[in-house]
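Example: NAD-dependent epimerase/dehydratase domain-containing protein.
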Amino acid sequence: MLLRNFYRTAVRCNVRYYSGNLANNKPPKILITGGLGQLGVECAKYLRNKYGRENVLLSDIIKPSEEIVNDGPYLFVDILDFKGLQKIVVDHRVDWLIHFSALLSAIGEQNVPLAVRVNIEGMHNVIELAKQYRLRVFVPSTIGAFGPDSPRNPTPNVTIQRPRTIYGVSKVHAELLGEYYYYKFGLDFRCLRFPGVISSDPPGGGTTDYAIAIFHDMFRKGQYQCYLKPDTRLPMMHVKDALRALSEYLEVPNERLTRRVYNVTSMSFTPEELAEAMSKYVPEMRITYQPDSRQEIADSWPQVFDDSEARRDWNWKPEVDLDQLVRLMVKEVKEKIAANGF
Ligand SMILES: NC(=O)c1ccc[n+]([C@@H]2O[C@H](COP(=O)([O-])OP(=O)(O)OC[C@H]3O[C@@H](n4cnc5c(N)ncnc54)[C@H](O)[C@@H]3O)[C@@H](O)[C@H]2O)c1
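Written out as structure tokens, the predicted fold is:
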């Protein structure tokens, strides 16, 4: 016990050496990889408001729209190119890395070799880079890091993890690798397991995407055909809560963290319950159900996520409930359709 405490203290002291510039009141320089997906663009907006436009570098391998370029610094960064990553970190004096590049659950099953490269080899590059340049590194994990052997209601922070998708396997790999680098080298690795994140931006091919697509289809076609059964319960969160969780967690002093990987969530609902909550705002809506291969994935995932450890260690608390989520989505999706037709 004594030895363990000594070891933990030693690792924590070492970790301070890795942390960004907040101690000298200078905002950190942040690089976001895979930044043109569902979460990256919103994340850059959120962090630019907090730390300044020039301090948040958005990156991806996709050609950006004019709007993205006008919003702030944007760079080409391929997560599989280690030298390219080193150059960006050195040239821009990066302190924190937010690693979003990934192939999500449904897309990953369609191209396993590519998912192995992007999700696993990409993670090897990121972790080595973070070690070499002493970066604070944030890697999101997911409810998909659990599988049919895990308790599903509720799913605690530490339990059996035997996922059956390449996406889930790669996220367990990332969690374990990050923890290992923390214990071995004092790397300031931070990871949150997000539930399905809901925003008005187009989703990236995950199993919880229905909860976004339903809003878009309702306003464009007046109906939605759901690929999950009506009673499929999954944990979910509005993007506002997800980004606040990410941002708050990145600033927590290492001394307060008892883990490097935390579950976070806001709520759990089924397609039927979401449709019911939406009917208040869209009374004419129609929903039908035609389950596909994503049903099997959803049936192996947590139904209710236990985030009590995040609440205890760094006061995590969600703010957006189901009714507020629906209200926000109705407003934002209507605005998006009016502005650019998607
Ligand atoms: N969206 C969610 O509901 C959710 C839930 C839990 C965890 N997460 C995690 O959050 C992160 C971001 O999710 P998202 O929904 O924005 O994903 P997304 O699929 O929308 O975006 C991923 C991005 O990665 C980029 N990418 C692919 N290959 C790349 C490469 N070789 N180099 C650099 N970039 C590359 C893609 O171009 C894409 O823009 C992912 O790691 C995901 O696992 C998301």
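The chain has one domain: 2-198+237-266+305-320.
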